[in-house]
Amino acid sequence: MAAVKTIPTTPFSGQKPGTSGLRKKVKVFAQPHYLENFVQAVFDSIGDLGGKTLVVGGDGRYHNRTAIQTILKMAAASGFAKVMVGRGGILSTPAASCVIRKYKTFGGIILSASHNPGGPDEDFGIKYNIPAGGPAPEAITEAIYARTQEISSYKIIEAADVDLDTIGERGLGGMTVQVFDPVADYAELMESLFDFGAIRAAFAAGFRMKFDAMHAVTGPYATEILENRLGAPKGTVMNGVPLEDFGHGHPDPNLVHAHDLVEALTGAGAPDFGAASDGDGDRNMILGRDFYVTPSDSLAVLAANATLCPGYARGLKGIARSMPTSAAPDRVAAKLGIPAWETPTGWKFFGTLLDAGKATFCGEESFGTGSDHVREKDGLWAVLAWLNVLAVRKQSVADIVTAHWREYGRNVYSRHDYEGIDSAAAEGLMEHLRGLSLKGERLGTYTVAFNDDFAYTDPVDGSVSKKQGIRVVFEDGSRVVFRLSGTGTEGATLRVYIERFEPDATKHHLDPQVALADLITIARDLAQIEARTGRTEPTVIT
Ligand code: G16
């Protein structure tokens, strides 16, 4: 058996997990001991590892294979009985959650920087998911961080690298490494939730779609499910081969970065439906022909139509959304007579609600939608849910969404991102907003009902999370919200979320940038964005 070596080390500053794990440049992760310190801190923080099984996989980005070899040797040194690794080191984030739950493992380590670019000069990331399948809650990430700040050694075995490309079991020290098909369990789960017969019939009858995998992890999943199992024509999946640098792309499924898809869905001859997913397969963007569905509306429409999907035929227990997500899903929950939950940004906050059976569907404005089938947001799940609804209703995406607005009213919504701004300026801007007392003030045609820094008490475990975003809410329910992103690796990103409810169907067709123009100006002025950041325009508008 290979000898366990104890390697002395010293703490690195800044190993604090953000919205979703630790994300840094590859060059930071590649420094001697950097990854090892973090992994040891995880192992030290999650209890007795003896005899347990861990799942490991990633989105295939640059450094994925190197990191997996290190993690395997450290897991063997720490007493794990077995590690399950997706073939080629590949495992989408929702598939990892699926496998953790299905095989009742002691959680998993997911290597991804999600929608951030990949390559030697780009981003890498790591996070630990708990046995329930979801991202570690704050109590655990804080314990991991505290451990990184006092670490003095880590354990690793000396052994040759493991073959990650052949399915099967092999030994590593006293541990078993099981390389498995990363697609099979996930595809089976999807088949149990959605009406594959109806979707297959729609494709057979000429329904056309494009799915943009953005050269990221969902390529193999989408090809197997959409083309092989559902019979969509070959070529339905675009950019389907995962590449270490995502083909020099930015695997973020939004209107700016998924431009090939947006172009393909434009014009009279365009397919009926378009969708894209991100680096690690948990985000989604939904398009109809010449029509963009905001993530908030997507959650609302899917919730309103959930019973058309066999896995949800008995209805939903509740709908949860992050605070900056529009209130469109709340309107559906009210009509269905089920609870609507408002949580801080970060999928980890949905875990307790899902485990307790308080919510079935969850979603975030940041292109995340999912349900209690796993404990991560799930890009392909959202695509299949839409396909199921489209196949049964036999209407266009635009017709379904505009009919939804007529029934519920439209929560007109937009997010403006100011990326790569100076961190000190960003912090100063947030402090300035925190200091404002606006209740009763008149801004343009709006009167402020209240402003605060969103704090959340988890209704299941009572844990409290503070400073989760500045809200300025007006008397008519319109609002502007300000947050700093917790997923970036360079400088700061200011996110400004703008929302107004429009009950009048004759105005539903208006471009949100026009319909929200006055609130956009109010937000910029309130936060003194130009004076504090030097920016006159956002870098990304979604
Ligand atoms: C992560 C989290 C999401 C969150 C998103 C945006 O997504 O899992 O829950 O909404 O970040 O976070 P921020 O606004 O702080 O950048 P992903 O897809 O990056 O894992």
From TrEMBL:
Residues 7-18 have a biased composition (Polar residues). Residues 15-154, 185-287, 296-408 form the Alpha-D-phosphohexomutase alpha/beta/alpha domain. GO terms for molecular function: magnesium ion binding; phosphoglucomutase activity. Residues 1-20 are annotated as: Disordered. It comes from the Bacteria. Its EC number is 5.4.2.2. PROSITE patterns: PGM_PMM. GO terms for biological process: carbohydrate metabolic process. The keyword Magnesium applies. It catalyses: alpha-D-glucose 1-phosphate = alpha-D-glucose 6-phosphate. GO terms for cellular component: cytosol. Keywords: Isomerase, Magnesium, Metal-binding, Phosphoprotein. It is an enzyme of class 5 (isomerase). Its cofactor is Mg(2+). Belongs to the phosphohexose mutase family. This is phosphoglucomutase (alpha-D-glucose-1,6-bisphosphate-dependent). It comes from Paramagnetospirillum magneticum (strain ATCC 700264 / AMB-1) (Magnetospirillum magneticum).
